[in-house]
Specification:
- The complex is a heterodimer of chains A (260) and B (411).
- Chain A has 12 helices and no strands.
- Chain A is mainly alpha-helical and 260 residues long.
- Chain A has one domain.
- In chain B, α2 links the parallel β1 and β2.
- Chain B has a single domain, classed as Single-stranded right-handed beta-helix, Pectin lyase-like (Pectate Lyase C-like, 3 Solenoid), CATH 2.160.20.10.
- In chain B, the strands form 3 sheets. Chain B has a 14-stranded parallel β-sheet with strand order 1-2-5-8-11-14-17-20-23-26-29-32-35-38, with helices on one face. In chain B, strands 3-6-9-12-15-18-21-24-27-30-33-36-39 form a 13-stranded parallel β-sheet, with no helix packed on it. A 12-stranded parallel β-sheet of chain B has the order 4-7-10-13-16-19-22-25-28-31-34-37.
- The chains are: A mainly alpha (260), B mainly beta (411).
- At the A-B interface, α3, α7, α8, α9 and α10 of A face α4 of B.
Amino acid sequence: MYKILKYSFYDLIRSRWSFIYLLFYLLLGIVLLFLNSNLSNAIVTLLNVITVLVPLIGTIFGVMYYYDSKEFTELLLAQPIKRSNIFLGQYFGVAISLSISLIIGLGLPFMYYGLFVSDKIFEFLTLIIVGTFLTFIFTAISFFIAISFENKIKGFGVAILVWLLLAVIYDGIFLIFLVYFEQYPLDMFSLGAIMSNPIDLARTLMLLKLDISALLGYTGAVFKKFFGTNYGVILSYLVLIFWTIIPILGILWKSNKKDF
Amino acid sequence: MNNKKWLFFVFVIITTPLLSSTIEVCNNCSIKSLNEAIKLAKPNDVIKVKKGIYKETNIIIDKALTIIGENLPTIDGQLKGDLFKIIADNVIIKGFNIINVGKDFANSNTAIRIQRSKNFEISSNRFENILYAIYIEKSSKGKINNNKIYGNAITEINSGNGIHLWDCKSILITNNYIEKMRDGIYLEFASNCEVDNNISTKNIRYGLHFMFSNDNSYIKNKFINNGAGVAVMFSKNIKMLNNHFAKNWGTASYGLLLKEINDAEIRHNVFEENTIAINVEGSNRINYENNNFTSNGWALKVRGACYNNVFIKNNFLYNSFDVSWNTKMNDNLFKQNYWSEYTGYDLDLDGVGDVPYRPVKLFSYIVNKTPEAVILLRSLFINLVDFSEKVTPVFTPDFLIDDEPQMKPNI
């Protein structure tokens, strides 16, 4: 598995797209800090970018890489290598190279602007950790989708649809629910809904770090307990880990079953 | 020099010591306690207390005395009931370290209680381990300055206030530092009082609290990290100028809470990092001018029955919500404010945006109706919805509009 991981990783690191991705984050970080000259505000803006773009790019990269290296994968399958090793190796290669682009791309400008001497370092770390989680989750989801669909166009379409669903439509439906059932106690429902969408979960984790927690705790006792204490943070991270493992298991299950 | 003048001069020299003499109190003097000294003293005497620790209870001051502590002597109340009680006019208490006063909240035990007196001055004292520090009833024309009050309040029920005024007139409260009490400064039925240059912090309820108190002002104070910075309730003609409200941050915290207030002036204040900077209920004819709202959860939360208010030349910077409004009627005026979220343009370069700004976002309107929706803050969907509402307003109140949004922050 490590050999395949290493191969995929080096292959991607040398590819043009990784560099463009890295450059994009470098530019974004520099421009944000140049315009805001305030780490805290830059982090708030980055929050929007991270929760939308990171999943999108993870999805597109994952699908693209799978379909591109399909012939090579089929060649590998002919060798005496375990199937799970091949697919996991490729998956981790993509996810790790994307994460490294993210970490370096955002880390460098922020370091240059005095991240280590400011008190915002933990907020930034949360941002990076959450971004890395999202990369891993959405690359896994896109791999799962790509394995499930032979047809490239279909696979692409479904992957983008899943991203759109989780990033935008989900919140819309969620909001309609909240407004429609406003007479009922909604805190437990809201927490459940947040937990079952990794993008919402990532956003909430960032909000907790950005001190907006008091705004959230304003609503009721359940929110107060969840957002006011470490309980919420720990639970959110656990669910994020759970969210990473589930699609990876999906890849394993699908790849073992699939007839190439 | 003529004789008459000489005579008068001699008379003054002889009689002055008779009118006011000085009594010294110290651990090795003939007078070892403050209570003893007060019994011996005549009106208008000066009592000087040297450095040391004095265990006293129930010091009743029933004549005009000036009591001065030299090098901060400690008066230890041994946790038995009240300590000082002033029931005469023209009393000065200065320079004491007052500790361990009783904690019976049924009797509201107090370090310095002032009843029905005039022209008193309480200054440069330090208070620690007390229930109420200074409690003033039915008095007037007093000064309270340079005191430091350190409380250890944990719950609202069994704690007291730092400086408590009840039915008072013309009291000047300046340069005090108050922490960890229930209310830092509390005014009930007080009028013509001035509260200036104080720092009130870490109090569990309010930094400063007005109840039924008209014609007062508070200027240049700092209210940091309190349950709520300042609560002004059921009062008229309050001037609130140049104060700093910061970090009043918690699930039900306010920088400034206004309830049933009429004809007030709120100018040049700074509100920083409060959950709700100003929470307004049933308040009319208030001028909000040149205030700075920075990084608050809500800058203005207006809960209804507010008429004829004017919001002019304020700066709204990086608040999660600028304005939240829940009434349909409005005759309030927003004018010439700076909004950091304003995205309009200024073609004629006169510093005023050409497109009016609507400070109430759709999301703010939704959160008002279903508070749980706040969990969707900063989500892409919400940004999209806010954007489309900005382009074609449907839900947000169309009367709430700033016709002259500034392009640069007001100074």
